[in-house]
Amino acid sequence: MNLQKFSPWNWFKSEARENTGSSVPVSQAVEPRSTAISPLWQMHRDLDRWMDDTLRQFGIPGFDDRLPGFGDRFGTLSGFLRPSVDIAERDNEYRISVEVPGVEEKDIKLSLDEHRLLIEGEKRQESSSAQEDRYQRVERIYGSFRRVLDLPEDAKVEDIKATFNNGVLTVTLPRDPSVQPRQREIPIQSQ
Question: Which residue range or ranges hold the SHSP domain (predicted)?
Fold first, then answer.
């Protein structure tokens, strides 16, 4: 990945505010008791937490945001569905791809709230005709999901288009070329 093309807009600032304090870990590692290693263990946890917070400020999911062992990256520690999102920027548009395998188009709702794009839906459990099923293992998760994306100022919200194909929702947002970034050079004076 070419980091020079990385755009710093934080698409997830509203979503991060909504999710503050809502995560409940599924399991926690056993912490050492009062031994000589305890300060090191605490420092390790503090560094992990600091790194996660830093990544989230840039709209990048933290290390603890995904359940380990779910190859599809579809779950979070809170046990809620959280579809993966790719956001690409082009000169004339933004393209948002939301991965929602197993979700039908009719179960997805796309809406605008001010300058925020709300993506909501539900992954429904398949009904089985065999009521005698005795599951040996269940890894798939079902339920509702919600993603909130803060749109950049140059996104033309009145021209948003969306398509759904093979479990991927693609949202296209044209860009308004007349909106210029709020950037100006500040002269430096010598004393």
Answer: 76-191
